[in-house]
Amino acid sequence: MKDIVKIENRVELIGFLRALGTECRFITVDTETPVKNMAKTGNPYWGTVKIARRNGIVNMDYVTAVEKRFAEQHGMKPSEVTYTPGTVWYKHCQTEGGKALCLCEGNTVKTKGKYYLQFFPLRDIGETTYVHPTLGTLNKDQIKDMEGRMYDRTKAPWKPNVITLEIDSIRSVTFRKIKLVNETVSRLTGRLSRFKGVVVSTNKPKKAVAAEEDLRPDDEHTGNVDETGRW
After folding, report:
1. How many Å apart are CA 206 and CA 134, to the nearest integer?
2. Are residues 76 and 205 in contact, defined by beta-carbon separation less than 8 angstroms?
3. Which sequence spans correspond to the domains of the chain?
4. What letter does residue 38 receive in the DSSP assignment?
5. What are the DSSP calls for 80-121, one per residue?
């Protein structure tokens, strides 16, 4: 049990993430997150809070995962692919050597001064519930109706899911040490990614560039989900 760390204090968590550096760890996180990507006017579900528990991994290399899966899907070598992340609503804190941490800071007027934890989600644990201040716990029909009113964004099928979670929404998080080897990384990135068939021509192989589009700060904020960014 000595390799497990549980944190429930916001300040302690920020300090731990800085000290953790670029070390990969499994995490289990309990969250209470306002569902922010809904219009307040005329929306009966505005003010709903999502209560969830999930696990995942911090400090995996997102860029490498994207390049590898893009190459596999398009019949190329990873060395033939260069992925360039675009400008997003947050920025990664860095080591003195310039390596990105899983701790992020807001990079817009609405998010400036806020800290975020970024990780690869693996799976939800237990039941996720949505609680409204007057409606109480939403039932399945209400959740379906609410989700239909939310901003719908599709992502490139060769990108793994990434969550950028506001520190203030985290009630507790547990970190456990892991030992990653190449086979482990390959298996995990394959499991975490959702891929679809893409018809491409490889008659003249050349270096491919996968560029990231900009994201709005309100995109998929049920847990501040963001599907981009270097890890």
Report:
1. 57
2. yes
3. 4-211
4. S
5. GEEEE----SEEEEE-TT-PEEEEEEE-STTTTT-EEEEEEE
Q: Which of 94, 122, 102, 140 is nearest to 192 (CA)?
A: 122
| Residue 41 pLDDT grade (very low, low, confident, very high; cuts 50, 70, 90) | low
Report the interhelical angle of 182-192 vs 62-73 (nearest 10°).
70
84 beta partners? 211
Query: Among 5, 222, 17, 6, which residue's Cα sits nearest to residue 118?
Result: 17
Q: Please, are residues 163 and 121 in contact by the beta-carbon 8 Å criterion? A: yes
pTM: 0.73
| Owner of token pair 């990614």 | 193
Please state, in angstroms and rounded to a whole number, the distance separating the CA atoms of residues 114 and 165. 10
- Distance separating alpha carbons of residues 31 and 225, to the nearest angstrom: 13
Q: With contact defined as beta carbons under 8 Å apart, do 115 and 167 qualify?
A: yes
- CA angle centred on 24, ends 23 and 25, rounded to 5°: 115
Kindly report, residue by residue over 48-57, the tens digit of the pLDDT. Answer: 999 999 999 9
Q: What pLDDT, in 10s, does the model give residues 70-112?
A: 998 899 998 899 988 878 899 999 998 988 999 999 999 989 9
**Dist CA 56 CA 15 (whole Å):** 20
